[in-house]
Design goal:
By secondary structure, this protein is α+β, with helices and mostly antiparallel strands. The chain is built from 19 helices and 12 strands.
């Protein structure tokens, strides 16, 4: 354990510090495709019984009209998992002859033209969200946008940052110190996030309809299933969110200013292939919001983001520039097809330990090629993570993945012990033990379990994922919401529909002017 981590843990293992460990907030965003009972992509509009995708705070859509997104509030501990389960129960009770796809990689997909883009109504903001998604289709294709994942939002209590700042004798504004700490967390996440992909990656196979232009380096498991034998997460591999434009963008996480400057340049700098296509098609209709490297900052497909809650109509980049980092969003998590929610308390508790380790551990600047080495370690793990004797680059020296992983878990152990002492429980130490077992035996990882299931049952990826979808639907149906919970959801659905109606009834500015003002607000 390095000296900084040891000193910070000693500070937090006090009467004043221990309560602050559990005082931070956690939130989960889970995406899931709507599919028919036969496992085909649902072509139906977003169900009115789920409210307005534009205005409902917890049930919306992501890229496609068929791609639901569930959003929990920011809550303490693992309460967000309980809320996520309630959202699932309500949603599935309202879906007619449809289910939620259980995996990150999509169901068998129709032709690109038949994948519906999400619609958000006739207000200016609703149309802007639709045009942005048209731009994503133009730039990356619709197929890639049907991949689903889990985003995990994590914050530490501001009093914890104040305690650390006081102990370290650091002068200056507390919010600036907090932003620096979150950026330091992100640097360490970049160093060590390959471990999350090994432990929790769950997408080693996919339906061949996803590969529009041949199977590439993938192997054939059966006529409809492609895979890589040692892969942990094809979702996060080169098959996922990649483009020449985004590869030209390398945000620096050495401070908040360099990060925001990188994104500002990306949303302000034209990219020649996009400029050649233009913002409007031959018929004069909008097809992308801008011709820049990114239309908006959310287009940057990173594995982790610094975030700040936005005010009404505010851009995420503007919020960061104005008020600093408030929390971080982990974006690289696969949906575990064996779990009804795609995530469980064991994984959530390990994420808490791991992110505290990234936050409290020493975090030097990413220099001398370490940034590229971290990217390479991540990509090696998602495509070859369970390969025996796989070597990663540990600050210029080769090291076995399993050995480095055990080193990290050993350094996480004092954090797990402190969390257990602070909570008067024994919840976090068993979580670490479960992850050590996966490093000792790769067959226990979700990715290995998926491939084992496919080989044993001979049902192919689509058949396996559909079977799991049916199991999850039955699980949620066994315990419906109580009347009070049901009434609360019904009220929120009605309110969201009313809000959209009022928004569309209000006087709107000219759409072109609205887009110009929106894009200009990040300056």
């Amino acid at each position: 354990m390095n000296k900084l981590l040891h000193r910070r843990l000693a500070l937090l293992d006090t009467q004043e510090g221990r309560p602050l460990l559990s005082a931070g907030l956690r939130g989960i965003e889970r995406e899931a495709l709507r599919v028919t009972l036969d496992g085909e992509l649902a072509q139906t509009p977003h169900p009115k019984a789920l409210g307005s995708a534009l205005c409902h705070p917890q049930i919306t859509t992501d890229y496609s009209e068929s791609l639901l997104e569930f959003i929990t509030p920011a809550l303490s501990g693992t309460a967000c998992l309980q809320e996520l389960e309630r959202i699932h129960r309500f949603t599935l009770s309202r879906l007619q002859n449809e289910r939620l796809w259980s995996a990150s990689m999509p169901c068998p997909l129709p032709a690109e033209a038949e994948i519906p883009i999400a619609r958000y109504g006739n207000s200016n903001i609703g149309k802007l969200k639709y045009i942005y998604r048209k731009g994503l289709a133009l730039r990356y294709g619709k197929t890639m946008q049907c991949i689903a994942g889990i985003h995990y939002n994590f914050s530490l209590d501001e009093r914890l940052f104040a305690l650390l700042q006081q102990e370290e004798g650091t002068c200056g504004d507390l919010q600036d110190y907090q932003s620096r700490c979150y950026i330091a967390l992100i640097r360490n996440f970049r160093r060590y996030s390959w471990l999350l992909m090994y432990l929790f990656g769950a997408s080693p196979a996919l339906d061949r309809s996803f590969m529009r232009n041949g199977q590439g380096e993938l192997k054939k498991l059966d006529e409809q299933t492609l895979y890589l034998p040692w892969a942990t997460s094809l979702r996060m591999s080169d098959l996922g969110y990649q483009s020449a434009a985004q590869r030209s963008l390398t945000p620096c996480y050495n401070d908040l200013t360099s990060y925001t400057d990188s994104l500002h340049r990306a949303v302000s700098t034209p990219w020649p292939p996009y400029a050649a296509q233009g913002t409007h098609n031959a018929s004069g209709k909008w097809q992308q919001l801008s011709c820049n490297i990114l239309q908006i900052e959310n287009e940057y497909y990173s594995s982790i983001r610094p975030k700040r809650v936005t005010e009404n109509g505010e851009r995420p980049l503007s919020a960061l520039l104005a008020r600093g980092v408030q929390y971080i969003e982990v974006r690289c998590l696969d949906i575990n097809p064996f779990l009804p929610l795609g995530i469980d308390q064991t994984q959530a508790r390990f994420l808490e330990v791991f992110l505290l380790y990234c936050a409290l551990q020493d975090s030097p600047l990413l220099e001398d090629g370490e940034c590229q080495a971290s990217t390479d370690n991540f990509l090696q793990t998602v495509s070859r993570g369970r390969e025996p004797l796989l070597m990663l680059n540990q600050r210029g020296k080769p090291v076995l993945l399993r050995d480095w992983g055990q080193q990290i878990l050993q350094q996480c152990a004092p954090i797990a012990e402190l969390l257990d002492r602070a909570g008067g429980c024994n919840l976090y130490n068993p979580v670490l033990a479960a992850q050590r077992a996966k490093l000792e035996d790769p067959a226990q990882t979700p990715s290995a379990r998926v491939l084992d299931e496919l080989r044993q049952n001979g049902e192919g990826f689509a058949g396996f994922a559909l079977k799991q979808s049916a199991k999850h639907a039955a699980y949620f149906a066994e315990k419906p919401l109580n009347p009070e919970q049901q009434a609360a959801f019904e009220a929120s659905i009605k309110q969201s529909l009313n809000e959209q109606s009022q928004l569309e009834a209000a006087k709107q500015s000219r759409f072109d002017d609205f887009v110009s003002a929106w894009l200009g607000s990040a300056k």
